[in-house]
Amino acid sequence: MTSPLTTPASEGRWTPRLWGTLLVLCAAMFLDALDVSMVGVALPSIGSDLHLSTSTLQWIVSGYILGYGGLLLLGGRTADLLGRRRVFLAALGVFALASLLGGLVDSGPLLIASRFVKGLSAAFTAPAGLSIITTTFPEGPLRNRALSIYTTCAATGFSMGLVLSGLLTEASWRLTMLLPAPIALIALLAGTRLLPRGAREENHDGYDVPGAVLGTASMLLLVFTVVQAPGAGWSSARTLLSFLAVAVLLTSFVLVERRSPSPLIRLGVLRSGSQVRAQLGALAFFGSYVGFQFLTTLYMQSLLGWSALHTALAFLPAGALVAISSTKVGAIVDRFGTPRLIATGFALMVLGYALFLRVDLDPVYAAVVLPSMLLIGAACALVFPSLNIQATNGVEDHEQGMVSGLLNTSVQVGGAIFLAVVTAVVTAAAPAHATAQAVLDSYRPGFLVVTGIAVAGLLITLPGLRGHRGGPSLVVAGSTVKEAEAERPAVREQVL
Length: 496
Known about the structure:
Keywords: Antibiotic resistance, Cell membrane, Membrane, Transmembrane, Transmembrane helix, Transport. The protein is mainly alpha-helical. Helices cover 78% and strands 1% of the residues.
């Protein structure tokens, strides 16, 4: 499928409308990431104002993750079948309305419900937006540049959420809920004029209703089980039975998808080694970073006594480095290819996490914390855009939404699973007599787990370096032109 916007891009010139299209999509992704991180700092104020227990407060965060992570597979395929523009704009409108309601409610359950609806709408805007980019910009340097800008907006939104929440919560926690509403509304109005009217997929075989039900149910139950496991106990009957139910649902989902004429996920896409590495890399990348941010926030606020704003500013160098690199990463990908950048990024991430293990109760920020933040920021700048490029290269236009939903699912499920694991490790190591040093010592196993997850991401990436000799990274079915000429059998094996 081609877009009326593709022609100028393919000639190397981006028209004002093309820039406007990218800006609208970036705004939606910025809001999705912003909403994940911004609410955390506001939770104490919300609990005090609405008289909510700690367990109820958890669901203000978990409700968003549940809707987002549980429905991404459905959101991606829906964008392919019903039209990316239509799905994106409808979901963005729901996101704006839920943001407005979330800032006005005076009830904990209603606030949690609004957060779930926002996560649900993000599960449709994220894969639809990514697939609009990949079907508008031709594969190669132009798409790489667009994706590097797009994914940088996501990383910047996640980082800026911490800073903005620290500032806004000083006035009112409601502002953290209301802020996305006007931005989403402006993006919606601009999107109605700028987004290309691409044709939806012609589906003569009907819709995969059983696959949609099973896939959505399995992801919802998986995220729900992982979120609840630290509180209920990993070995409790409730948790074990929930995981068993997830396994049954996923097995049934795979069996249905293998027989469906129009599957929610075409399982053949996972025959590609580069695709599998991108999905597993996304799990490890976001899972390690979310765990690191969680522990570091506790360390800075609970042990060092830093304010929410002080803590947010401590993370700022990482976010600033990502933002500054936004227009450069695409060119670096063109030169070195995604496998090298992902491996380099994971190596920097491992080093950054390892250096942070030196922290004590009186750290010198410039000597201890700042180097880690800069290394992690550089890693995010390299890894996140490269994973998106690697996952979407060589995929037909009519399956871009499916692959985008799968990648975003890997990101969100990785964050939920590994955050729960890190929380469980820290809780198990919690001291009976909570002196400051003892609490810090209980955090170290959690930081080691975070480092280990990043090491696993690096090891997953390394096989992709075999046979990679550099040169232009114009990708043909998951391989470079140079590799395609030298190793045609390997390329045919990657093509589904």
